[in-house]
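User: Sequence in, structure out. Go.
Assistant: Echoing your sequence, followed by the structure tokens.
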Amino acid sequence: MLQRLAELERRYDGPIPPYMLSPPNLYALNSARENMRFMAQLVRQQISGIRARRSLFWPDEPHMFRDLGLYWRQRRKYQAEAIRLGRGRT
């Protein structure tokens, strides 16, 4: 462990990035979880926007549904990655 820290200190002329100090895959797992949460929030906001437009009797915009589909697919992708990385830790 000390040898690894010495190597990192030689490599970086300043603070060592947090992902380099964390156990393997922990940074990637946390990153995937945060991205999944962010995409879930975008899904909720997009659905809220669609419902608001419908409550005002405005016509549906196709791009809103395309965006919703994109956010949903990205959320599923990050969820699968988080599950895969989480299994590797056990």
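User: And one key feature?
Assistant: The chain has four helices and no strands.
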